[in-house]
Amino acid sequence: MLLQASQITKRFGHRMVLNALDLSLQPGEVVTIFGPNGAGKTTLIQILSTLLKPTSGTLQIGGINALEEALRVRPSLGLIVHEPLAYLELSPYENLKLFGRLYGLNGLEQRIADLLDEVQLTPYAHEPVRIFSRGMIQRFMIAKALIHDPALLLFDEPFSGLDLAAKQLVLKRIDHERARGKGIILTTHNTELGYHVGSRFHFLLNGQIETVAEKEDIGLETLSREYEERLKG
Amino acid sequence: MTRTQLIGLLSAILLFVAIYVVFSFAEIEMTMLEVQKIFYFHISSAFTLFLAFGVTFISSILYLIKRRDKHDTIALVSTEIGIVFGVVVFTTGPIWARYAWNTWWNWEPRLTSALILWLTYIGYLILRSALAEEKKRVYSAVLGIIGFLNVPIVYFSVELWQGGLHPDTSTKMNLPSTMQIAWLISWLALTLLYLFLLMFRYRTEQIKLELETIQHQQMN
Amino acid sequence: MEAFRQIGWLIHKDLALQFRTKDMLALIIVFSVLVVLIFCFAFGPIFPEQLEERGKLAASVLWGTFLFAGIIALNRSFDIERMNGALHGLRLTGVDASYLYLSKVVSIFLFLMLLEVVVTPITLQFLDVLTVLPVALQAQLPWLLLKLIGVIAIGTLGFCAVGVVVSGISTNTPGKESLLSVILLPLTFPVVMAGAKCTVSLLTTGGLGGNFWISVLVVYSLVFLASSYLLFEFVVEG
Fold it and tell me: What ipTM does this complex have?
């Protein structure tokens, strides 16, 4: 069991954002969580990445208690959210070098070169990230999230604000990592792409999570219809 | 009668006793006459100021270790009360100094240390009001600890800074017995007052938090 | 040791960022010189004749200026971490929060030292301190300046020790610069008292006149380095 979240509750002051969520993930699975804005998707991803502590509940990653031993668990995670989580004044190369060193990686130069090549950023390897387009920053974020070859990937709205080419790259990447046996959780409100890439689907509505179905058991149209009905009700 | 009410009653009684003792029982000091009597309340308030912020310090440590909300509430409430006692210190102090040394402010070590501490904990309240709910308690606890660690260093620095320029204000041991009694009673009265205010204010804050929780539950 | 290497890389990153935006160092130097000039115009054109008075003036100007510049540097350093979630990127590597603390203290210390090495001689020149020095001291001027920079260094270290943790807790608020000043300044008063006293002593006698004040600076630095090292985990992780 790669990730096991149990009864995760999060309150900000008096506002209940997540209400007793359960979620699990095995290697090779891609879990897509659909939800509208404000449903708590970002908060959930932040908690699963151990960057935010839940009000109550337990979280196990790779069998380790992620709430007590967050520092031990984090090197197994790759996170992609709206913010780059990096230094825009530095180049992709410098960023990857810094984070690679902090992760304690070997053969860093080669890794960086290969990764930048895969995300097609090699010509810009030494330009400050600040000047990149949104799509290029997204590609940089993918490289940064994968530099340490994490077993678990967390994506918060990976498709928003991207052009078609960048979306294709993200889809390909998710597929590729799944094939390599990684576990992936992503949140999105894009039913089509989320369905395409996922192997299991959940709805996150008003802070509560519902298991919908495995991919084999449901078609895109049915899923979209159910999702829309939930949004109305 | 609850514990809080009991302490409140005791402190009220003692305050009246203190007023009587200070104004009728204690001797009139020779150089300053009646004005000297403000000093009893001044020095007792200064003590409670340090006590209040000391309580904030301990509660902040306890909160960071145990993460029980009650420690944070005590830290907050004690800080508020400490600041109020500070106002008393910085009004009675200058009044006394004006008649003792002909100046409104004289950089006396304890007074100056109290001022710096007071400013630090005003910063504590400002910080709390600026922070979002999520980080408020942890961050103010950090400040509550750091602020108090500064106290001995500040105190020692100001004493050194003065280099013994001032007449020693700690002449308590040489006081005639009536004055010693007045000093003791006013100290006890104000300490009990602090305790009462702490317990009362703590309870008020608790009720306020419970009320908010219920209100929000009703809204949801 | 792994810890030193990680801290080393973090310091390297901070310094690269601080000097990458070249205008930052220039801006702070210009700011400091302007503050010094304000004091010069307020006190001048004829400064106190007596060496001790002149020395006190120089000490006040130096320590006041460095405090204000230090606050700007602290704010700037944490702004960089806050923007784009860079700090979260660091957290995700599993690096110890205390290493983040040490690296920040060292990099801001180095940055401020660079500023102080430039501004101190300029200040002493503007206030014409060097000409009123006793002849004996004038002969050993480089040595005197070195000792002065040494004292300023210990004071700066203490400032950074407290400043980094206070900056950490106030950076995520509206009005963070003013809030940082309000919280930090009372905490730095011992540094100002001790630092100024040491400065005056150096300028008038060439020595520290007993170890009291320098000990205050050292104790201050140690107390706050130790306590902030432990507390920074709460600042980063909450």
Answer: 0.92
